[in-house]
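Exercise 3.2. Students should predict the tertiary structure of the chain below and write it as structure tokens, then compare their answer with the key that follows.

Predict this chain's 3D structure.
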Amino acid sequence: NTFCKRVRANDRDYNEKFQYASNCIMTSKYNIITFLPVNLFEQFQEVANTYFLFLLILQLIPQISSLSWFTTIVPLVLVLSITAVKDATDDYFRHKSDNQVNNRQSQVLIGGILQKEKWMNVRVGDIIKLENNQFVAADLLLLSSSEPHGLCYIETAELDGETNMKVRQSLSVTSELGDPNNLAQFDGEVVCEPPNNKLDRFCGTLYWKDCKYPLSNQNMLLRGCVLRNTESCYGLVIFAGPDTKLMQNSGRTKFKRTSIDRLMNTLVLWIFGFLVCMGVILAIGNAVWEKEVGALFQSFLPWDPPVDNFLFSAFLSFWSYVIILNTVVPISLYVSVEVIRLGHSYFINWDRRMFCSRSNTAAEARTTTLNEELGQVEYIFSDKTGTLTQNIMTFNKCSINGHTYGEEQHMREREKERERALDFSAWNPLAARDFCFYDQSLLDAVMEGEPAVHEFFRVLSLCHTVMSEEKSEGELLYKAQSPDEGALVTAARNFGFVFRSRTPGTVTTQELGKAVTYTLLAILDFNNIRKRMSVIVRNPEGRIRLYCKGADTVLFERLHSCNHELMNVTSDHLNEYAGDGLRTLAVAYRDLSEEQWEEWSEHFRGADKATDCRDDRLAAAYEEIEQDMMLLGATAIEDKLQEGVPETIAILSLANIKIWVLTGDKQETAVNIGYSCKMLTDDMTEIFIVNGHTVQSVREELRYNAEAQGWGGACAFGNGCGGGGAANCMPDESKCPPPQAPPPSLLESISGEFALIISGHSLAHALEADMEREFLETACACRAVICCRVTPLQKALVVELVKRHKKAVTLAIGDGANDVSMIKTAHIGVGISGQEGIQAVLASDYSFSQFRFLQRLLLVHGRWSYLRMCRFLCYFFYKNFAFTMVHFWFGFFCGFSAQTVYDQYFITLYNIVYTSLPVLAMGIFDQDVPEQRSLEYPKLYEPGQLNLLFNKREFFICIAQGIYTSVVLFFIPYGVLSHATQSNGVPLADYQTFAVTTATALVIVVSVQIALDTGYWTAINHFFIWGSLGTYFTILFAMHSSILFNIFPKQFHFLGSAHNTLGQPVVWLTIALATVICIAPVLAFRFLKLDLKPQLSDTVRHTQLVLQKKRKPGGRAGRGVGGAGVASGSTLGRLGRGGSRRSGYAFAHQEGFGELITSGKNMRLSSLALATFASRHSSSWIDTLRRKKHANSPGAHKLILWIDKKIKFPPRRKRQEAELLKTLSFLSFVHSSGLSSKPF
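Answer key:
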């Protein structure tokens, strides 16, 4: 099959024929050869750059150019160079990061010898050696392992976000090739599927020694995984570099533009259209003037040689005016934008409040082009593991026999009061040093020998699948399949019930210093349907007991009826724990008689050996024995959140930002974290769960949720069909048109707070073309959305769906390689420099070490960047239209000859010197409110989301103000100077006087305007604004001086104009009059707007001023302003949830480890241990009891006879409880009579 991939081990020559990808990864966009053409191509995608290139070409034509070509080419080259340097710098850091990954060392088997090679030099078909805690370099076929039976353990957090360990196993035929010499002789050939992005599937065949062996995902180690709890293993490289499943899920690096950039492209096209219209009007005027008036001057003022008629004159005039009027969009605008963005990026990098001292990591703006979009985010897509959580589990609280233990302390208090943590090492030499618990009463209960407390910790030390390794005496290392289980076993260890070791049939513990070995009779394995696991053990005294831990909702249904009162008390404790966001498990036990065990074990063995429906039969057998249990209590584990996560999510929610969690973890774990970080609350109206496995079921669940949200009955999607239930929403397709999503206005009117939880298999159907709109509208009507068990590609598809249909700015944040795809897809990608490697940081636009810094990035830096950029653009367009449109009005008075109003040096310096620095200062430093107010009033963020500060409407207002200013600046001086005279009677109505007066008035008016627009004054603002005015006058007098005229007589024509003009009082009166007429309407409008319709920022600023005047340091009188409408959701109550109790169950465990343990495949057993195991199983408890009791008591013979008699009659289900109670009563009698010395 040409679509299959063929890989032969240890044969590079054979594999290189297929030209497979190397293991070198590349996240950068350019190299030395492609940088210049690709970067220029990207830059000329900006309409403005193409526009300026076109103008430059026009200016090179002398017949139409009235300005020198250098006025355009110098700024254009400057802009292109600055942007190119910035892009090159960004890409240099990507290259540097790529090199860090590509240069990692790996051990490759070459010529029978292990040699160190860089990752990028690893080839398909190579055999490489991995050691414990190393990252997997490529997608490998596991050949052998240091663990028995070719097993190895991996952590896949970077791939799917799951923190629990997974087991992989090599083929038995290759598992013995553990020696490099044997592996060097291995020449097997693998035929498999081509590279793809499916993380959970692999299909292939190994051909070796004339045999073929099927391969599956269980035999594969994928790039991005970490080898755990395994000394070493060997693997054959199947996919390398870009072909690996990790990179296939990463997506391509995309060129990102902000919404303001896209709007600017549109506006530039509009302005160019406006420019063409003005050019046409003036060209028509030129044609009319040349025909009617200009023809009269031909005798002494003939046309230039190329011009022979008025139409050709008009044609040339059109292009001349296009060049003159091009300053409506000066190229300095783009230089200024890049400088401002660079300044904002440095502010992010320098922010000490976003610096993490613990990891010594500062925030980093890895790109400079997206800063203002940080102020417009509406949707945040977050990973869970490592982003919201620290991936650290701690035993926090527990409930035992109706008593709750564990203190409520915040993390900072714990750090301050570390010395208050219990000291276990004083009496328990095997205690874990890093375990912290603060409640002395629980330790006292253990020391006092309370039976329930002892039994509780005995369950935790026995009911698990943890492996123990004792490297030296007393130094225990637990290899837990999930961090939850590791935390529970460690808790039991510290409270005196230490799990020491296990064999396939025994578990050895040390209980309060005494070694105890239990016979392990059975492990009833955990799975996501059972939500519990059990073990059946026999203690040294011969008692058989089942220990169980699992979800309280499942376990409580299987308790004995006498547990009702204890169950109610424990339920209250579980509610309290769940409210604190803790992960809970209930703990119970059941005593079994020998005959009950024998009868059940027969059923169990039969189900285990069944060839059909094995899983169902095993589940039925488990269900049979896990009944009538006695409740012991419950555990509460804290999945430690990153510091400040709940507060950050709450503040961002108040800013009208919707947060979706996209995680590869299981549903219960993700929901538990949702409650921990306050995304989900018990006050929500309803929490919807979509868990269907088919298109039909997913559609029905989505429609049912839509009805519950109040979209109008069964026909919520407008299909026109009647009916009352969700099932009725699926009519005959021939009778009803396709379903349609509700209109946005209807969504906005929905009252109540909802949450949506959807699994990965349901999401696959929901993202199909005919259902994606229904899913999107349902999700967007919810306050919180959690997507569980999603692949990296699904994360990107969800982000793309929101981008495409909601037209909202999206931000994706994550810390692992499984988040790279969504980080690249979102408008803004944020990488957390956490524990899962650096792949997310490499692909991100911004990076920092803590999720809590996100609120500062958005609400402070993002909001300020958006505000500054919008004010900058509004002012820039205003000042340039005011400057340029004067030429348009002047055209009607100069015969449409394309004569400029101003001196050409003023035209060149206006945007570069006279008005550039004040607007840069405003664009970099301006603020409307201080940073602490931005965080206190999250509603201040909403104008950015609604795009209120710079849009098409605001643009036209700026243009209108600029045109109005140009009218005043032209006609006021024209009207005054046309009749004015100097003190000696000489008229002032000359071109040079008019040019100087208009230019001076223009600089003064725009300087006053920016002073009004500046909301936050610094010394730099003062210096730039007033310094620019001083610079203008200095340069003006210098250029009109005789010194420059004498040196360059042909370049400086305005000899003495400045001195003569500005020495006249009437000129200053004209300038003052024009300034007042330009500024007065602006002041009046702003005062009225502030008084009649103030914005929230105005109110906050006013409140701050009032507080400063009243000098009330402790008050925050304006708190209600920002919170108006903020906490509206908290008054909803439990509308749809009534008195239902929420379970805090979450257990990051995986099925299959119980079978591994009982089979012994994952253990190194000596022959002595195996013999001991066999002998323990072969001896009967009855025989043991006979020997003991015959030796100790003559009355014990009666006990044996009684039990022998009882076990002759196998109990029936309906008589089981009565028989057990009789047995317990008799044993109690035996104990009270002194026949048994052991407590019952």
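Discussion points: The chain is about 45% helix and 15% strand. The chain has a mean pLDDT of 81.
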